[in-house]
Amino acid sequence: MENPDVYKTVEQTSPEILYKDKKSKFYASVHPIRSEEEVKPIVEELRKRYHTANHVCYAWQLGVQNPSYRANDDGEPNNSAGMPIYGQIQSYDVTNVLITVTRIFGGTKLGVGGLIQAYRTAAQMALDSAEIVEKTVEAQFRLRFGYPEMDKVMRAIKQKNLNIVSQKMDMDCELIISVRMSEVETTQQLFDEMHDIEIETLG
What we know:
The protein is 30% helix and 36% strand. The protein is of the alpha+beta class. The strands form 3 sheets. The protein has a 5-stranded antiparallel β-sheet with strand order 2-3-6-4-5, with helices on both faces. The protein is elongated.
């Protein structure tokens, strides 16, 4: 990736598309996910909705710097469904997504080559119908300081154009700020150099 702190994903589930091949129907959608735990409920919901479906195949990818992924053939011949779907995730360069393709068998076998083509095309059509957005990878810091430091801290935040996620003003002040990955080191250094300010990385 040329820019390490920008990635592409979807914010909402795409409209479901239908691809047909020799009377088999392939229903495909792209879903936004933040963790692997979100995959199972989506797949189970599709099994309920399409109770005549023979296979609910899918692939997902999570993460930006070192992404993890999984491809599932759900009973189709090995690598004939999940991997072709995953190939489209790679070719559209998206992450934090799950693509599901639900197949209702139409009575005519497609063969492995036909299946690969059908699952790939259905995934591609789903991605074409999805709204792909660019997002920034950010890290968060917690800043703790006393009231006398408030002006200094606020000036630095404004100067560096940092986002304040939350603030607590009690006896002491606590701010949570988010920073683009590419600016993490300089931000850390900036606040480290200020005395009486505690900075902690939240990941």
